[in-house]
């Protein structure tokens, strides 16, 4: 018996922020989509500009339109509040049979609660937070952590490695909140990494070691995000070209603080980095960047925030 070929799913992407734009771009450029990607953003002009740049995409004027026309709906939004505001609209509609892939950083129970509401409404839900700053997202170098029902995760996997990311940490069969859990714990390591690179660069400068020499050591021994942030500090982009807004980073820190309180654990190094993030926010305001931790360490050591 001849099988009827499966129709290619229609994808939509909600959110054209620092990560949403490069992820959606790579879905179009690398995903070999048979149907134009549907884009939605609260400020629609950003979606139209992005669509013109990446091609093979169309813009939905409303969330309702984007969801109603799609089979798989991705979202990558500013914070947890934005996620719940968006899904309050989505959950008023008929979502039976639709798969939602949520890439925002959220608290564990908030993720599980949202997943339950989607599933109770007849949809599928995969939490898939990512590791990697926007430059890495642009180069499809993200590490993605999908969690949820195994059959749902398997529908997402084909769009990850080689398309939007370089690797996948597959948590199939685990609760969606387990992906958020992994992201929160991993955030501890990322923030402490930025702190350690900052302190090393300030020590090098104060003791007379050329920044370029330290950067060579970082490239040779550590590489990856260590090199990315070392370069951002050397180039001065940490204060000239904000990439990860300090407000967004501080929200992630709040999730860590909640988890550490629940677990009765003290994270000494993370507390130091958090203090430096507060200094960045006071000094640079909304234009502050998480890499500005370097500027805070500089100020603490008697140097100017800007290198």
TrEMBL record:
Domain of life of the native organism: Eukaryota
Leader sequence residues: none
Pfam families associated with the record: NAD_binding_2 (PF03446)
Family statement: Belongs to the HIBADH-related family. NP60 subfamily.
Location of the active site: 183
Keyword Cytoplasm attached: no
The name this protein goes by in its record: NAD(P)-binding protein
Keywords, comma-separated and alphabetical: Oxidoreductase
Residues in 6-phosphogluconate dehydrogenase NADP-binding domain copies: 11-160
GO-annotated molecular function: NADP binding; oxidoreductase activity
Gene3D superfamilies: N-(1-d-carboxylethyl)-l-norvaline Dehydrogenase, domain 2, NAD(P)-binding Rossmann-like Domain
Keyword Ribosomal protein among record annotations: no
């Amino acid at each position: 018996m001849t099988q009827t070929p499966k129709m290619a799913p229609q994808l939509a992407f909600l959110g054209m922020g620092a990560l949403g734009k490069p992820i959606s771009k790579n879905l179009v450029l690398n995903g070999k989509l048979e149907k134009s990607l549907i884009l939605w953003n609260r400020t629609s002009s950003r979606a139209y500009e992005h669509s013109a740049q990446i091609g093979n995409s169309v813009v939905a004027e409303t969330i309702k339109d984007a969801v109603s026309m799609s089979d798989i709906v991705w979202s990558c939004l500013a914070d947890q509040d934005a996620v719940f505001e968006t899904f309050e609209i989505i959950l008023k509609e008929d979502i039976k049979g639709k798969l939602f892939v949520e890439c925002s950083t959220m608290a564990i129970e908030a993720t599980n609660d949202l997943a339950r509401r989607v599933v109770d409404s007849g949809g599928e839900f995969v939490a898939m937070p990512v590791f990697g700053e926007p430059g890495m997202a642009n180069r499809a170098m993200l590490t993605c952590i999908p969690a949820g029902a195994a059959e749902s995760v398997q529908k997402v996997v084909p769009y990850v490695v080689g398309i939007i990311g370089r690797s996948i940490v597959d948590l199939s069969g685990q609760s969606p909140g387990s992906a958020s859990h992994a992201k929160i714990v991993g955030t501890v390591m990322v923030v402490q990494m930025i702190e350690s690179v900052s302190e090393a660069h300030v020590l090098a400068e104060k003791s007379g070691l050329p920044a370029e020499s330290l950067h060579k050591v970082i490239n040779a021994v550590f590489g990856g995000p260590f090199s990315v942030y070392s370069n951002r500090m050397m180039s001065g982009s940490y204060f000239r070209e904000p990439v990860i807004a300090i407000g967004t980073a501080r929200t992630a820190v709040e999730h860590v603080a909640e988890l550490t309180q629940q677990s009765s654990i003290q994270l000494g190094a993370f507390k130091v980095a958090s203090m430096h993030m507060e200094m960045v926010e006071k000094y640079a305001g909304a234009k502050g960047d998480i890499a500005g931790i370097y500027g805070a360490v500089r100020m603490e050591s008697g140097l100017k925030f800007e290198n």
